[in-house]
Design a protein that fits this description.
The structure is a single chain. This protein is of the alpha/beta class. The protein folds into 2 domains: 151 residues, SPOUT methyltransferase, trefoil knot domain (Alpha/beta knot); 58 residues, Orthogonal Bundle (Trp Operon Repressor, Chain A), CATH 1.10.1270.20. It is built from 9 helices and 9 strands. α4 crosses α6. The site of adenine has 12 residues, from β5.
Length: 229
């Protein structure tokens, strides 16, 4: 998979790709990340990429021309299945979208800044608009980092134990059950006896019950979705 990220702040985004699982995925050639600084596509001397909005109002708007130039240059090189715009008024990101995106070969992610982008960018270039939650970040960069992390870990071969992605919370609209490790007794706080029993089917049943309990109490919306399936 290849991800091209268009941003005014590539330096803000780099470190998650330089550590841990994402770094290993890149080293194993399972994913390629390419940053494109939008200012490099500005046509004026001041490397301007934003301007005042027509009709007046506070806040600058990202101009269409540098974005067009950058996306068009990329599209000349290869076909992209998705051009994603990170924005708080996009579709809410979830595990289903992460699963879908993990199957794509080439995607572009455009990070919004200031007030956002000229609407014509959204109308003519963007295939999918994604929000990571009902709150406003200073820009789309951290949101794009979240999306990349969630997507890349689903690519086969990225996680050393592939089944661990399958048992994540949300894969079947259920939250994960509680987990424990040694010591079995810490300051008198005991691990549930059943987990020490060695009875695999009883343990599985316990985990399923706990997953249901957690989902019902913490995320009734998700529980409804699970039952509807
Ligand atoms: N840009 C600013 N806030 C955002 C959000 N919540 N999700 C995606 N992109 C954003």
């Amino acid at each position: 998979m290849r991800i091209d990220i268009i941003t005014v702040l590539p330096e803000l985004m780099r470190s998650p790709f330089e550590a841990s699982i994402l770094k290993r995925a890149i080293e194993k050639d399972l994913v390629e990340i390419h940053f494109h600084n939008l200012r490099d596509y500005s046509s004026n001397n001041y490397k301007q990429i934003d301007d005042y909005q027509f009709g007046g109002g506070a806040g600058m708007v990202m101009m269409i021309e540098p974005i067009d130039k950058c996306i068009s240059a990329l599209r000349e090189e290869r076909h992209y299945q998705e051009v994603i715009y990170m924005t708080p008024d996009g579709n809410r990101f979830d595990q289903k979208i992460a699963n879908e995106l993990s199957l794509k070969e080439n995607i572009i992610i455009l990070c919004g800044h200031y007030k956002g982008v000229d609407q014509r960018v959204r109308d003519h270039f963007i295939t999918r608009e994604v929000s990571v939650g009902d709150f406003v970040l200073s820009g789309g960069e951290l949101a794009a980092n979240i999306l990349c992390d969630a997507v890349i870990r689903l690519i086969p071969g990225v996680l050393s134990n592939e089944t661990s992605a399958l048992t994540d919370s949300f894969q079947d609209d259920l939250l994960a059950p509680p987990i424990y490790t040694r010591p079995a007794d810490y300051k008198g706080w005991h691990v549930p006896e059943i987990l020490l029993s060695g009875d695999a089917s009883k343990i599985e049943e316990w985990r399923e019950n706990k997953a249901v309990e957690h989902t019902q109490s913490r995320r009734p919306d998700l529980w409804k979705k699970h039952q509807g399936e």
